[in-house]
UniProtKB/TrEMBL annotation:
Coiled coil regions in record: none
Domain annotation VWFA: ranges: 43-214
InterPro entries for this protein: CLCR, VWA_3_C, VWF_A, vWFA_dom_sf
CDD domains recorded: vWFA
Source superkingdom: Bacteria
Species name: Glycomyces endophyticus
PROSITE patterns tied to this protein: VWFA (PS50234)
Pfam families: VWA_3, VWA_3_C
Protein name, entry field: VWA domain-containing protein
Amino acid sequence: MTDATAFTLTVDQNKFVPPGTAEMAAVLSVECQTGGTAAAEVAEVIVIDRSPSMGGPKLEEAKRAAKAAVEALREDAHFAIVAGGHDASQLYPGNGRLATAIPKHRRAAALAIDRMQLGNLTYTGVWLRCAADLLATRPGAIGHVLLLTDGMVNQDAHSYGADLDYCEGRFACDAVGIGVDWDPDQLKQIADRFHGTRAFIEDLADLTDHFTEVCGKAMGRAYGEVAILVKTPADVSVASLRQVYPTLQDLGGHRRDLDGRSALFSLAAWGTETREYMLEVAAPAWRVGEEIRAAQVLVVQGAGSEVLARANVLMCWTDDPVLNTEVNAKVAVHTGQVRLAEHVRTGLAALRAGDPPTATRHLATARTLAEEAGNRATARLIERIIDFDPGTGTARLKQGVTEADRLQLDVGTDVTVRTPTSRTERT
């Protein structure tokens, strides 16, 4: 049984809204403390693109990073190394098996990685299907895939989609792009679908550190099959739930409606960490001055939905302008960061379409939103593309913007900042 005290849930919101307001937004902060000991069984599959474009320094640095990632595994972890081309070649241990990360298997895996040769094509779905089958040999383990690629998916859309469907719910996947010829939207699809992240490693010398960090974090996972269950009263509906910290991720694709009043959103496995989610509910007009529980939120685990933590989202219609115009700081910041990402996407799309004025306008708005949120990292990425004058709020597109600049901004916008707790409702 899970130690329910490992999880805490708090809700940041302003429950007071003007009469007739139909929507309520709240930030759910979920914190997990594992006590420093990862009790769960974990399994890792490291997938390396070996298509022809990976030749030279990219392949050598990928090999170096893969070997470092193996060294970052716990000795009781299970793992495999897969090389991807038009097929998925099991470099180690082979024959559809996983190995334990004891020293002799680490050494053997390093030798197998060193022998990896270039192949052909980028059949990413085939690679992920292979990883799913390998992880299925340890059904009790929390599975994780670390995927590296430098190119776009070559598979036809039907077979690629079928492969992703096959892998649904079987593992979490962090995807890494190197070079400038991969598609950020494809990596975003993988990251969102498999509860992971996407990253662009611009300097190949940083690849080893990134692999080590990602695998180290995966080794700290202690709780799998965690979900958020939202229960609402009659006439109140769940409009959306999205992760807003530490990265942006729409959880609509992970939603399962249990009945007309309960929606279950699956989450990735957890270690010691904090994540924040933006919940939006829609409610009919209610009597002024009367408070309702717009939603009961539960953090649950397993097929039996064992409750790990719970809290309420409240709603009260009031005509008091002091109360109903108060802005919750956490909700405001995360709403701004969601808008920031939307403006970046629109701006980059305009840039690709050859529309500099539209691109500049949206990126300037994104730059302002980044500053308001305290997200200096994203602000700096935007400044790789535009010159921004904070005094006047004006901007102009820089000359010589590279594909690397665009990729860094596209991927970097996923990462958000956390804000201090403000007005909070707890149970």
